TrEMBL record:
Any Gene Ontology biological process: proteolysis
Peptidase A1 domain boundaries: 85-506
A Pfam family matched in the record: Asp
Record-linked PROSITE patterns: ASP_PROTEASE, PEPTIDASE_A1, SAP_B
Metal-binding recorded as keyword: no
UniProt-listed PANTHER family: ASPARTIC PROTEINASE A1, BETA-SITE APP-CLEAVING ENZYME, ISOFORM A-RELATED
Domain of life: Eukaryota
Signal peptide from the UniProt entry: 1-24
Protein name: Aspartic proteinase A1
Catalytic residue positions: 103, 290
Amino acid sequence: MGTFIKTSLLAFFLLFLLSPTAFAATNDGLLRVGLKKRKPDRFNQLTEHGLSVEGNARRNFGFHGTLRNSDGDMISLKNYMDAQYFGEIGIGTPAQKFTVIFDTGSSNLWVPSSKCYFSVACLFHSKYKAKSSSSYKKNGTSAAIQYGTGSISGFFSQDSITLGDLVVKKQDFIEATKEPGITFLAAKFDGILGLGYQAISVGKAVPVWYNMVNQGLVQEPVFSFWLNRNADEEEGGELVFGGVDTTHFKGEHTYVPVTQKGYWQFDMGDVLVGEASTGFCADGCAAIADSGTSLLAGPTTIITQINHAIGAAGVMSQQCKTLVNQYGKAIIEMLLSEAQPDKICSQMNLCTFDGARDVSPIIESVVDKENGKSSAGLNDEMCALCEMAVVWMRNQIKRNETEDNIINYVNELCDRIPSPMGESAVECNSLSSLPTIAFTIGGKTFELTPEQYVLKIGEGDVAQCISGFTAMDVAPPLGPLWILGDIFMGRYHTVFDYGKSRVGFAEAA
Ligand SMILES: *[C@@H]1O[C@H](CO)[C@@H](O)[C@H](O)[C@H]1NC(C)=O
Ligand SMILES: *[C@@H]1O[C@H](CO)[C@@H](O)[C@H](O)[C@H]1NC(C)=O
């Protein structure tokens, strides 16, 4: 493939807040990358939230990592909000540190270049300085990777890559000199390390993993991911190069052959909702295991039906209804008591200023990044919705409508608000009544409970529950494809068996 498209899916304003990672390796031939989790503050979480998806869609979530000692050479990863898992690598001699997403849905390694002068995103990230590395070798061939929300471009260079104690020599990677758009601006990771097959590598560059195998750095030609889905725990996850960490799964893995060596693609049996005996893929569906995607993506026709079955509606609609539910009556009362309409939302602490949001989300995120704080995107959403609701309610009051009629009418309007990114949300308090959704792979059933397929952002009144099912249409011949991202890989420990060309899943522990 000439052009590899990696797209990013962003919930509202995408801000990646990924923490730094540390490496440690041991001497049993396994390299472990640990993933850490961090709890974000209760507000602003949507904004901090990146979701990544492979293919033709428009969304992205990121990843983190730290190495950790265990009975093997392992790298530990950091987990940010169950949506982003990443780890640290070194490039050059001495090693220059970078935080990268370990992405099985792409195959190149890229990091920002010290020669990136005109992209703001480069200002806020570690940059590779070829001059400071004694193992650097010039290449200079230009390269670009397209994303749904932007792109990166730059040129190839060659250097040593440090993963824990392992050093991969003569690795071709992309020094990004342009990172336009906001996708990478607020990203907490510097770059991406692709773990897919060479067939989808831009410039046909030999992937890091191939060189690890070819240079005899791993015991077995296998790597495996464990992603912790408990955001309260310090350990975010673990990427093991050269084997599996037996402490992180139960029972046996179910293996299926890789059917297309580009992504880690395999044939999935069916997708079943609740008690249904026939599902949406009765004739089989192609799927990929993608650590670089936060959610679970599938064809629009099917995802729409699943989201209908679980009562998911557009994110903005859901948020709008939450607002009406919690504040609707109070807003009406304030309007009736002749409060100044443009002050109501700030009086209710839903808007910081009196409707004046003069700081654009981008600038805000940059400012906040500098201050080491998160930005206020979720507040902005609530503020904007509140102001809309005030206008709508005021009109209804002028028509002498009853309170109940006003609330009903505004709820109907909520349904009509388009979702900027197409995410769907469910009522957080409805989780216990939602069906289990099952995937059949290799003749076995892999279930996800509502708690597992819904991504909960925030707590209490402002909690948002995002459906883990997101629509993404990958055009033929590559597609249609299902993308089993972190939502799935969190519940199921995943082995990427390069030697035997197969993918294995077992219950994570
Ligand atoms: C530059 O890197 C590309 C991608 O790995 C490779 O195909 C090409 O041969 C390299 N060119 C030189 C001059 O090293
Ligand atoms: C609303 O009610 C007031 C007083 O009850 C009346 O004067 C006014 O004409 C009514 N407005 C409409 C639009 O029905």
